[in-house]
């Protein structure tokens, strides 16, 4: 592209680095900001810098937080004997939005993925083992993506954690609520038949 | 959404104000930035603040520029007797990318749109009239969108400028090169037939 200004070119180049943002979208976003008040633009860029500089990771569950211990880990209302293991912050937010879970979390910061060069030592796994050693945990729920990386990570975690005699569970897999049978992929459908549940227990919730 | 951090919530709210960016996209962009080095994030937000604070508008053509007179207006290689009137910077960039135009520009900063409360006085129209008064301009090309606002603006500009005895032209409208007839909308197709050109002159380029 043929920019009439170096400053503009620079800002567009920075925005283009964001995931899913091409040069045209970047230009649209930057020109939008250019039309805003200086104070608004200042607030925009400060929010990013401040987030990056001041954010912390909860020293217990490693979720991002404004404090050294996150609100969930610090809460007395939560059930601290149940740990839900998730990949990242977005998963914590998604589960919190369901209002179905009252336990605490452990954020791995990724999944084991040899293809991307991510091994167990790159994730918050040792710290999970440490939490187990305290001896209060009674259940670990693996709430990871139903992908090869997710399954590999669960397999590895279970191997590391099984010496602690507690319950291990994974979130239920199957057909989504409201899902129409004809659009469900074969693997999911096949497994849902294989792992069918007694009708009475399916009514329990 | 249920944010675990006020800082995060803040940054997501700021990104959500950008056009076409919803809360989920904003979260994805912000979490991406959070994974970058502090220096990279600093560079990102500086590029925006610097652009907003330091950008200028060329005092001749009103295009955005790093200097008081833009590179195009300052260039001796350009044909300064032909002015191409456009809505905004993006149009200048689009036309420059074609490498077909050697004249100079005049950026209106918008189109007349009573629906949006934009009248002639909100646009750089008086300054265009001033440029005409210098007496050197020989052609004005209206390169505005083929919409009601574009047509209204051309109509108004022509009324203001016709006292200067020069050539006025608009960019050609019709079927796009490579366009398949069956997918062309009726208005464009109808007008292309009505404004058909002699076969010989269609070969000229």
UniProtKB/TrEMBL annotation, chains A, B:
Gene label: recR
Family (UniProt): Belongs to the RecR family.
Presence of the UniProt keyword Plastid in the record: no
InterPro entries on file: DNA_Rcmb_RecR (IPR000093), Rcmb_RecR (IPR023627), Rcmb_RecR_Znf (IPR015967), TOPRIM_dom (IPR006171), TOPRIM_RecR (IPR034137)
GO-annotated biological processes: DNA recombination; DNA repair
ZnF endpoints (C4-type): 58-73
Source species of the chain: Mucilaginibacter aquatilis
Coiled-coil ranges (or none): none
Keywords on record: DNA damage, DNA recombination, DNA repair, Metal-binding, Zinc, Zinc-finger
Cited function: May play a role in DNA repair. It seems to be involved in an RecBC-independent recombinational process of DNA repair. It may act with RecF and RecO.
GO molecular function, one term: zinc ion binding
SUPFAM superfamilies linked to this entry: Recombination protein RecR
Top-rank taxon: Bacteria
Ranges where the Toprim domain occurs: 81-176
UniProt xrefs under PROSITE patterns: RECR, TOPRIM
Name of this chain's protein: Recombination protein RecR
